[in-house]
Design a protein that fits this description.
heterodimer, A: 431 residues, alpha/beta, D-Maltodextrin-Binding Protein, domain 2, five-stranded mixed beta sheet, four-stranded mixed beta sheet, B: 313 residues, mainly alpha, MetI-like fold, 14 helices, 2 strands, flat, MetI-like (chain B), transmembrane (chain B)
Chain lengths: 431, 313
């Protein structure tokens, strides 16, 4: 085999070029440097309706702001935060991104986000629901804007409950006539008796990262799980909530695969007809409307000492190292203006966070008949719930809830052990 | 390479400074060697050695991946020792490896022997068996989810139809582990078959002829000719399969997410969970380093003890 020095030089050049190309790849999907000095990059995930609304609002923003250019980057939800984490650690984060209230605390507590206090005066802050402004604040400083919220309520397959002898016209519609835990248990029992073994009275949406939704039961029992850095879950209220939710599995009220580590979403089990009722967030109303081939309606979550639901929805944030902090803040302000929020929520069946959009101010596009139940349900969220749910410890608390609830629900772990394990994990996370 | 060496030598004898010329020739030869190895070395350095060193550094820190990391020394490793879920994940990984590797090897060899013979439509069979290999792990995982879906998946429907009743593939630990083992075997057996097919085609037919003349039965031919002579393939596949089993991730992540409970949690899913879901990247990296050490140790032992790895006709 002959190899001239010319060829060897060529080979070396190919290798060098190859490695240059590879290093060049490292910056994919990056942020701040692209475009002119009025350019912003915005990373989000989203359903089709959400993406369309974001695009429409961005066009409007660009039209109103001469020279401004917002580059929308829609990524799959599964990769959203590992992408953002990697981009933050390599100093290549987008100027703006969307984040749920649970994850927001992780970023704000690590000093990764733009402090918005210079951009919002008191009058502007007062336009938001106080609990939602609390949700974007860390140690009193706002690090994002509450873009929308969504809460869970109960969807009911009317034909299935009717077959069990429950008249759909008697179903509760408002918080005042919401079922108590006992009434809810009676309905579940009645459904269990009438349904075949492979169908279930209901399904709860605590799978696939949804474990914190279990806390709604704790709040309904008037319990708490975190006070500063002290875990408060190992209490009489905690025991009550855990015993009640464990009974869902013991009594075969929920599918055995629907525990906190289940890999199937609750709405799939509902739309395929495996469960007669499902606890589901309002943002899924369009999907259920499209997929379910049966009549369904929405009713409030059951209540115990008080009503409660989960804090869904997302904030929009700007990163600390953005080149255009003023323009980024302007964009956040625009996205949470009454008109923009109203349009976004109407198209996506999500709930507004502004006081002037409360009640029936938003004209929802899909199933407007069921949306008042969700709007009504959102009012059961209390500032004290929000304070706990947006703690920076929440990401670790989420995992602890997944593991411990799964062990309690289907692993036979006792209530006392579960609460004490949860208490230890929450305390460690909150340190 | 031989031409070059011979030319070099010829040149050396004619030269007035033979030693210098020999040195040039040797230098040239080694440069050629490095030239060939360089592309791989560059890629391996970029995507293997640097990340490994990086992971090692990360495993000595407490960090969320962004913000200011904190040096904690071997704290992450100390935490590992006392973490029951880590030990369970390690045990699950070993169980998964023991359950998959022998079946993959034996099945791969069996299929290869079968498809190496005059089987009708063997091209079609080969394609079907190899097909899962070309599909991404996540996509195969999704297919497996549809098959093993507990409430109305295909397998449970079939089992119910033939009167056996449904199996709790997603809500009980043992059936869940069995489901991921079956899916992993389905995915990997095609690769083993291909390597064995190549190995089989290297065995000279005369050896079988000689064995037949000596009165060896079919089984004896298989046992005493085929099995030892595919030794290098077996060695290669054993290492590859064990490493693949120790690093299994996509399939389990999609099929069970490590559940129910921690019944199918393996080292890599546990590392991912810590590194990217809980954002304890230092702890996740420490688990990664443990996986690296275990696979290196296994490969080393296997390398030292295998007698058939270089066996050829």
């Amino acid at each position: 085999m002959k190899l001239s020095s010319k060829r060897m030089l060529g080979a070396a050049a190919v290798v060098t070029a190859g490695s240059l190309v590879l290093t060049g790849c490292a910056g994919f999907g990056g942020g701040g440097e692209e475009g002119g000095d009025q350019a912003l990059t915005f990373t989000t995930w989203g359903s089709e309706a959400e993406e369309a609304s974001f695009t429409e609002l961005i066009d409007q923003f660009e039209a109103e702001h001469d020279g401004a250019e917002v580059k929308l980057n829609v990524v799959p939800y599964d990769q959203m935060f590992s992408n953002i984490d990697a981009q933050l650690s390599s100093g290549d984060a987008p100027d703006l991104f969307r984040v749920d209230y649970g994850n927001l605390g992780v970023y704000s507590s690590q000093g990764q986000l733009l402090d918005l206090s210079p951009y919002f005066d008191n009058a502007e802050v007062d336009e938001f629901v106080p609990a939602m402004w609390e949700a974007v604040s860390y140690e009193g400083v706002p690090y994002g804007v509450p873009h929308q919220t969504d809460v869970s309520a109960v969807l009911v397959n009317t034909a299935m409950v009717e077959q069990a002898g429950i008249d759909p016209s008697t179903l509760p519609q408002t918080q005042e006539d919401a079922w108590t835990w006992q009434e809810f248990a009676d309905v579940a029992e009645q459904l269990r008796a009438s349904l075949p073994a492979d169908k279930y009275p209901f399904v709860y949406n605590w799978q696939l990262g949804g474990a914190p939704r279990w806390l709604s039961w704790l709040f309904q029992a008037d319990g708490t799980f975190l006070d500063g850095s002290t875990a408060t879950i190992d209490s009489a209220e905690g025991e009550q909530a855990l015993d009640f939710t464990k009974s869902f599995f013991e009594n075969d009220w929920v599918p055995p695969t629907s525990s906190t580590k289940g890999t199937v979403y609750a709405d799939s089990l509902f739309t395929e007809g495996t469960a007669a009722m499902a606890f589901i967030g309002s943002f899924l109303v369009p999907d259920v409307d499209y997929l379910a081939e049966f009549e369904w309606t929405a009713i409030p979550m059951p209540r115990d000492v008080r009503g409660a639901t989960d804090l869904g929805g997302n904030a929009l944030v700007a990163t600390k190292d953005t080149d255009n902090p003023d323009l980024a803040a302007e964009f956040l302000k625009f996205m949470t203006s009454a008109d923009a929020m109203s349009l976004f929520c109407a198209n996506t069946n999500e709930l507004p966070t502004r006081l002037d959009l409360e009640g029936d101010a938003v004209q929802f596009v899909i199933r407007p008949d069921v949306m008042p139940v969700f709007v009504d349900q959102a009012a059961t969220i209390e500032p004290s719930d929000v304070k706990q749910l947006t703690s920076p410890a929440m990401a670790a608390v989420n995992t602890a809830l997944q593991d411990q609830l799964e062990a309690a629900f289907i692993g036979g772990q006792s209530t006392a052990d579960t609460l004490s394990n949860l208490s230890a994990a929450i305390e460690e996370a909150a340190q | 390479m031989t031409t070059l060496t011979a030319r070099g030598r010829g040149h050396a004898t004619a030269s007035s400074r033979p030693r210098a010329a020999r040195r040039t020739a040797r230098l040239r030869e080694s440069l050629v060697g490095w030239g060939f190895a360089a592309p791989n070395l560059v890629l391996m350095t970029l995507f293997l050695f640097i990340p490994i060193v990086w992971a090692l550094i990360l495993s000595l820190q407490e960090t969320k991946g962004f913000g200011d990391p904190e040096w904690v020394g071997v704290d992450n490793y100390a935490k590992l020792v006392g973490d029951p879920v880590f030990w369970q994940s390690l045990a699950n990984t070993i169980v998964f490896t023991i359950a998959t590797v022998p079946i993959e090897l034996a099945g791969g060899l069996g299929l290869a022997v079968l498809l190496n013979s005059v089987l009708p439509a063997r091209g079609v069979f080969r394609t079907i068996i190899v097909l899962p290999m070309v599909i991404s792990g996540v996509a195969s995982g999704m297919i497996a989810v549809i098959l093993f879906y507990e409430s109305n998946g295909l397998l449970n429907k079939v089992l119910t139809a033939i009167g056996l009743g449904p199996v709790a593939w997603q809500s009980q630990g043992v059936p869940a582990m069995i489901s991921v083992v079956i899916a992993a075997i389905w995915l990997r057996i095609g690769f083993n078959m291909i390597i064995y097919l190549a190995g089989l085609q290297n065995i000279s037919p005369e050896l079988y002829e000689a064995a037949r003349i000596d009165g060896a039965s079919r089984w004896q031919q298989f046992r005493s000719v085929t099995v030892p002579l595919v030794g290098p393939s077996t060695f290669f596949l054993l290492i590859m399969n064990v490493i693949a089993s120790f690093q299994v991730f996509d399939l389990i992540f999609v099929m069970t997410g490590g559940g129910p409970g921690n019944a199918t949690s393996v080292l890599v899913t546990y590392a991912y969970r810590n590194g990217f879901q809980i954002r304890e990247q230092g702890y996740g990296a420490a688990i990664g380093i443990v996986i690296l050490v275990i696979t290196l140790a296994f490969t080393f032992i296997q390398w030292k003890t295998s007698r058939t790895r270089d066996l050829a006709e």
